[in-house]
Design a protein that fits this description.
Blueprint lengths: L3 H9 L8 H17 L9 H15 L4 E4 L1 H5 L6 H5 L5 E6 L2 E7 L7 E5 L2 E2 L21 E5 L13 E6 L10 E12 L11 E13 L4 E13 L2 E6 L2 E5 L6 E2 L10 E4 L1 E25 L2 E24 L6 E8 L2 E8 L8 E25 L4 E25 L15 E7 L2 E7 L11 E27 L5 E19 L2 E4 L11 E2 L5 E4 L11 E4 L1 H9 L24 H4 L2 E20 L2 E23 L9 E4 L5 E26 L4 E12 L11 E4 L4 E5 L9 E15 L3 E12 L2 E11 L10 E3 L6 E3 L1 E12 L3 E13 L10 E12 L3 E3 L6 E3 L7 E11 L2 E10 L2 E6 L3 E6 L2 E11 L4 E8 L6 E4 L6 E6 L3 E9 L1
Parallel strand pairs: 4-7, 13-17, 35-41
Antiparallel strand pairs: 1-6, 2-3, 4-5, 6-7, 8-9, 8-54, 9-10, 10-15, 11-15, 11-53, 12-14, 15-16, 16-19, 17-18, 18-21, 19-20, 20-23, 21-22, 23-24, 23-25, 23-26, 24-29, 27-28, 29-30, 30-32, 31-32, 32-33, 33-36, 34-35, 36-37, 37-42, 38-41, 39-40, 42-43, 43-46, 44-45, 46-47, 47-50, 48-49, 49-52, ...
């Protein structure tokens, strides 16, 4: 009989699993021996329930507190990427980007605390952080995944939240001599029709081949997976509160009398936009395995993922400029304005409604290569050597086209329409009420003119070379079964490059770079639909036609430059493009020793491990320090990409070295044949995001001799450290029926990275150039310079805190029911997490406490499935409580995200022995993403992404 899950398993069985042939055989033998010893009945199951049972057994025999996913499980669910697959595990949640799961959170901690490996090798990321973007890892090419929630000494350090281990399969362990599989799915998004020019249809395609040759001593596997999908969204984004003004005498204060002594806070504005575009992901894997005998095996494997997206964002960007605007009828909540009317003043005010036509391109590529040699030297001693290379390249090009309303676009010298009045009222998580005095002009080419074009590329590369040597020595001992020890060295280089091109102005019409007159062939009128249908229509502008009309065939390209005026004199207007570009270097040497335990205590079998890992880190970054051109302080001529030479800066490489010792303990007590108790304790660490180690620092000496400075990052940052404890009880119903597990965990976190202001910072002692005196250029007065001043920078906040929680999981296959219902099953998990860590945000104006980023107090996942003969169907529900994460507005902002429920559905049917069909729906209820600042009255993001429908076929032979 044709088995649909075997088809999808074979699709993902491409690559190489980095364990030795003998180790693999030993694990299988040990598992079989234990099974026979305990008289556990083995019943063959198929389909989705077989993948669940396989995952449960992997969790059962693991030596750490972990969660497992098998290949059948991955291939049988509507998982676009590994991010979707991982979120079905207890205590794991996803942050949706563009409607797709990308970053994962584990036990209340964000992606920066999660370590990730592929075939046991550390992976770098295109995100510029430590967290890999899991949507770049096709589920079709991954055979299994494990999430280690407790640590052990042999694991690569880096996961305070946990370690995610992805694996590609070994061709030599494939059951068949040769397998070839093809999968094709068409895709449709039901909201794409609401967004002009958005694509409605996409597809997924994958194939794989595995073969064994030379009497099964040589294995070969190849795999390819392609994803092409439309990316659509309709969104409102409220901006943070970064201005203040005395509004008491005008206020309609919802909290009572408007008598607060301080100024009220005003939002920067908001956006209303249509998003559209296409995402294309091509994934490739290949592997060769050679096992000339039972004691030696060589593996070489490669993984490449290319993820490209081209997208547009159209609509309105409303900028209040509230501290200088005329405001009437303000509505105040908690000393912040959530509604009112804002009018532009003719002079000194930039209140405006921008018609935006953003064009974004993102080209990402991840590569991972490895060579592994495994040698069983003697019956007792095994050695393994691994050489790996991981790289990531990302080029994000943010192109912006702004338009403003003119009094008359046909005038010889058009002038801006100063009659700007904006009325709005936030409605919490519901869409706001808005009104614009200029809304009749938003679709009129005789009024709308393009005022500015800007493009802001952000390129980064991340490369990691690693070398690892591990040994395992078996002992004939009643307490320690074996000893593992090894060393690892890694060398990582990260570089970031910024560049810029700007023409015109976004707040007015520039006389030197005049606005562009639009023509009929450049524009189309766009209407809003659905929930957004009451917003005014606007003009969508063809970017290429507009730029060709403005610049001709020679469209200027962005460069890294200091910035200069019309006469070519450096004015540092875009110096950030130079100062924010640089490199980070990280060299890590680690060594470990770990004893694997196997003994009895009061007739109870105990297994596990105890060990310690030493980690020596050398981190540094390039820096450009402003030394005022003083040669003695290292000043050099620094040339930008257009030939401008700045002589004020001294190039440096700065950083620190430190050594850590990370002990760990894992104990598993087998209470009965079907139940076990686990305990784990460890000290763990997570290094700062690699981009946070950049040295983009600056210091300024004022005319009165006072020094101040700032830096969003720092090469002197040290890791997050935590001591964690785990206690779990697991009960297994039978080999095919399921299990229930209850786990408690506690993490004592020593510190966090925060951007804080240090009042008495000694700049000279910290390595900054500080002159002894400074002369006021206007008055000629010479003042002594005090090297101690105010410095805003990223530091390790030593206050720390704890995270604690409860996880419950339950899986049941109701095989005891009558035949028609014997394929019915249920998988449930619930997590409750709390923390005493309270961070402060001022994005809603006044200071408000918020929880640790990534922490949801309650998580719930469930899958109800039913299999009968050749038919299988299931529905999955994921609930996530409120949490804190990042949203994008004008700038990246930390916001509170509301609870969400994501429902997915799938059904499949095996038509013939080799041919199957599949139907699935992702985000069945079209659940939006919604955020707010501090409290729900201060609206953040409301994004609708639509439902995704898939219809596909699978063929295997």
């Amino acid at each position: 009989m044709f088995n649909f899950s075997k088809v999808t398993l074979a699709l993902m069985a491409s690559g190489v699993l980095a364990i030795s042939a003998q180790t693999y055989a030993q694990e299988a033998e040990n598992s079989t021996a234990e099974t026979n010893e305990d008289d556990i009945e083995v019943i063959e199951v198929t389909g989705f329930k077989s993948s669940l049972i396989k995952s449960i057994n992997q969790k059962r025999w693991a030596d750490t507190v972990s969660e497992q996913i098998s290949a059948d499980d991955l291939g049988g669910l509507p998982d676009v990427s590994m991010a979707d697959a991982l979120t079905r595990l207890p205590g794991i949640a996803a942050v949706r980007t563009g409607g797709q799961a990308a970053e994962i959170n584990i036990r209340g901690l964000g992606g920066g605390f999660v370590s990730s490996t592929l075939n046991g090798r550390e992976q770098v990321s295109t995100s510029g952080s430590r967290s890999i973007e899991y949507d770049q890892y096709p589920s079709e090419l991954i055979s299994s995944a494990a999430v280690y929630k407790s640590s052990k000494a042999s694991l690569i350090e880096g996961g305070v939240a946990g370690t995610v281990e992805l694996k590609t399969a070994s061709p030599l362990t494939n059951e068949e001599q040769h397998t070839f599989n093809v999968n094709l799915r068409g895709m449709y998004n039901d909201r794409a029709s609401e967004v002009a020019d958005a694509e409605e249809f996409g597809h997924r395609f994958s194939f794989s081949y595995q073969g064994k040759f030379l009497e099964e001593t040589l294995g070969l596997s190849l795999g390819y997976a392609r994803l092409y999908q439309p990316g659509v969204a309709t969104q409102f984004i409220g901006f943070a509160y970064n201005a203040d003004k005395d509004l008491d005498f005008l206020a309609n204060d919802m909290d009572g009398p408007a008598d607060a002594p301080e100024n009220e806070f005003i939002s920067e504005g908001f956006e209303l936009q249509h998003l559209g575009g296409e995402e294309t992901r091509n994934g490739y894997i290949g592997a060769i395995e050679w096992a000339p005998n039972d004691t030696f095996i060589v593996r070489a494997d490669a993984f490449i993922s290319q993820f490209d997206s081209e997208s547009f964002a159209r609509g309105f960007r409303v900028k209040f400029d509230g501290e200088t605007a005329a405001i009437s009828n303000p509505v105040i909540v908690n000393n912040s304005m959530i509604g009112g009317t804002i009018n532009r003043k003719s002079k000194g005010n930039n209140t405006r409604v921008e018609l935006v036509n953003d064009d974004n391109q993102d080209f990402d590529e991840v590569q991972s290569y490895g060579l592994n040699l495994d040698w069983q030297i003697t019956d007792q001693l095994n050695a393994s050597m691994d050489i790996s290379y991981s790289s990531a390249e990302s080029e994000f090009r943010n192109g912006l086209l702004w338009s403003l309303v003119a009094e008359d676009a046909n005038a010889e010298n058009p002038v801006l329409d100063q009659n700007v009045s904006i009325s709005y009222m936030l409605n919490g998580l519901d869409l706001p009420d808005v009104g614009f005095s200029q809304e009749d002009a938003f679709t009129d080419i005789d009024r709308v003119m393009v005022s500015k074009y800007g493009i802001y590329p952000y390129e980064n590369t991340d490369e990691l070379k690693a070398y690892r040597l591990d040994f395992n020595y078996s002992l004939d001992n009643d307490f320690i079964s074996s000893v593992e020890f090894g060393v690892r060295y890694s060398d990582r280089d990260y570089s970031s490059d910024r560049s810029v091109y700007e023409y015109g102005a976004d707040n007015n019409f520039s006389s030197s770079e005049p606005p562009l007159r639009l023509t009929e062939d450049m524009v189309e009128v766009v209407d809003w639909e659905g929930e957004f249908g009451y917003f005014p229509s606007y003009l969508a502008i063809d970017l290429d036609k507009a730029l060709n009309a403005w610049f001709g065939d020679d469209i200027p390209q962005p460069v890294q430059t200091w910035g200069a005026d019309e006469d070519g004199v450096i004015n540092n207007s875009t110096s950030w493009s130079v100062l924010q570009s640089g490199e980070v270097y990280e060299k890590v040497f680690s060594a470990y020793v770990m004893a694997n335990l196997d003994f009895e205590l009061f007739d109870t079998p105990i297994s596990g491990n105890i060990g310690i890992r030493m980690v020596d880190t050398d981190q540094s970054a390039t820096a450009l320090d402003n030394v005022g051109g003083v040669l003695a302080a290292g000043a050099q001529n620094v040339m930008d990409e257009v030939g401008l030479v700045n002589s004020n800066y001294a190039p440096k490489v700065i950083g620190i070295e430190y050594t850590d010792y990370l002990p760990s303990l894992n104990l598993n007590a087998r209470l009965t044949d079907d139940s076990q108790l686990r305990f784990a304790a460890a000290k763990v660490m997570s290094r700062p995001p690699i981009n946070r180690l950049a040295a983009d620092r600056s210091a300024t000496v004022a005319d009165d001799g006072k020094v101040s400075g700032s830096s969003n990052n720092s090469p002197f940052l040290k890791p997050f450290y935590a001591t964690q404890y785990d206690l779990s009880y697991e009960y297994y119903f039978s080999e095919t029926d399921g299990a229930v597990a209850v786990a408690l965990f506690y993490k004592d976190i020593e510190s966090f990275i925060q951007n804080l202001t240090v009042s008495n910072f000694d700049f000279k002692e910290a390595g900054f150039y500080v002159p002894d005196t400074i002369e006021n250029e206007t008055t000629g007065v010479v003042s002594e310079v005090d090297p101690v001043g105010i410095y805003s920078t990223a530091i390790n906040n030593e206050e720390g805190g704890n995270i604690k929680g409860l996880e419950i999981s339950y899986t049941q296959v109701f095989s005891f029911l009558p035949e028609l219902w014997s394929g019915l099953g249920l998988s449930l998990s619930y997590s409750h997490t709390k923390s005493d860590v309270e961070l402060v945000t001022d994005l809603a104006g006044g200071s408000v406490e918020q929880s640790l980023p990534g922490l949801s107090e309650n998580l719930f996942t469930s899958t109800l499935f039913w299999e009968y003969q050749d038919f299988e169907t299931r529905v999955s529900v994921r609930y996530r409580d409120e949490f804190v994460s990042e949203q994008w507005g004008v700038n990246q902002q930390i916001a509170n995200f509301d609870e969400e429920v994501i429902i997915d559905y799938q059904a499949s049917y095996n038509i013939t022995e080799n041919f199957g069909a599949l139907f699935q729906v992702n985000n069945l209820t079209d659940e939006p993403t919604q955020s707010y600042f501090g409290s729900k009255q201060f609206s953040g993001t409301t994004q609708y992404f639509g439902r995704q429908f898939y219809l596909g076929v699978t063929y295997s032979f």
